[in-house]
């Protein structure tokens, strides 16, 4: 993940965190949010690809646009597989 890519996502997360009513100004909070979103983006993608168990909290989630951006940056190979699987055959 390049610093530039991460910075763009930081801004999106900071904005989202603020709209959720959390304090987005604390970078530690933002970092925690990044870790959480990165984790959920991966879990969601794995569930959608049928790699992860369909039970549990990640199974019913849909990828938000922000999560999709994070997935593309943090897990490009997983993102590629997900995109390929969503293309109409």
Notes on the protein architecture:
With 89 residues, this protein is mainly alpha-helical. It has one domain (3-86). Helix content is 67%, strand content 0%. The longest helix has 22 residues, at 27-48. The radius of gyration is 14 Å and the shape is globular. The protein starts with a helix and ends with a helix. 16% of the residues are buried. The model is unreliable at 20-24 (pLDDT under 50). Residues 5-44 form the Myb/SANT-like DNA-binding domain.
Compose a concise summary of this entry.
With 89 residues, the chain is mainly α. It is built from four helices and no strands.
Give the count of helical stretches.
4
Number of domains: 1
Helices and strands: which structural class? mainly alpha
> Major β-sheet, in short?
none
- Strand fraction equals under 5%
Low-confidence stretches: 20-24
Query: What's the quaternary structure here?
Result: single chain
Q: Would you report the number of β strands?
A: 0
Rg calculated over all Cα atoms: 14 Å
Q: How far is the N terminus from the C terminus?
A: 31 Å
Shape: globular
Domain Myb/SANT-like DNA-binding: 5-44
Protein name: Myb/SANT-like DNA-binding domain-containing protein
InterPro entries: Myb_DNA-bind_5 (IPR028002)
Pfam families: Myb_DNA-bind_5
């Amino acid at each position: 993940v390049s610093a530039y890519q991460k910075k763009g996502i930081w801004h999106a997360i900071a904005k989202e965190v603020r709209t959720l009513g959390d304090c987005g100004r604390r970078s530690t909070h933002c970092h925690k949010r990044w870790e959480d979103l990165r984790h959920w983006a991966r879990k969601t993608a794995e569930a959608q690809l049928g790699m992860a168990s369909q039970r549990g909290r990640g199974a019913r989630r849909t990828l938000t646009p922000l999560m999709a951006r994070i997935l593309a940056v943090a897990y490009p190979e997983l993102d590629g597989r997900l995109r390929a699987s969503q293309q109409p055959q």
